[in-house]
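sry for the spam today, last one i promise. struct tokens for design, 123 residues
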């Protein structure tokens, strides 16, 4: 299992922005598809966005399309999730996950996970 570390969460007002980062200390993240998932209290974890290792494929959940952007920086060994126009319903713990294979929002296909970063959207 690969170790992933998320950062960038915090408290933001509705309409605000945050950028989450997912890094890996001991392996090259660029070889893997990486996805972001989130879990709000009392709800199941859901896929938010993913990016393939080749960057050719990106996917977004309908609820975040047009507001969130996923990207990766090979030199920094980091995958980002830029979140704009945040809504209270975006509040959750956000996890990044990595694995070989195609970009997908189904968590069953991911074997390596980070510990999560909290995003709170409140006025």
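last one done:
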């Amino acid at each position: 299992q690969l170790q992933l570390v998320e950062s960038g969460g915090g408290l933001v007002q509705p309409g605000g922005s945050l950028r989450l980062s997912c890094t890996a200390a001991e392996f090259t993240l660029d070889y893997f598809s990486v996805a972001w998932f989130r879990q709000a209290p009392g709800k199941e974890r859901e896929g938010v966005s993913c990016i393939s290792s080749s960057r050719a494929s990106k996917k977004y959940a309908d609820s975040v399309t047009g507001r969130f952007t996923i990207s990766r920086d090979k030199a920094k060994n980091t995958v980002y999730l830029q979140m704009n126009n945040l809504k209270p319903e975006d509040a959750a713990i956000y996890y990044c996950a990595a694995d070989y294979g195609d970009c997908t929002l189904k968590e069953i296909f991911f074997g390596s996970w980070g510990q999560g970063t909290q995003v709170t959207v409140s006025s």
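The longest strand covers residues 92-99. ok im logging off now
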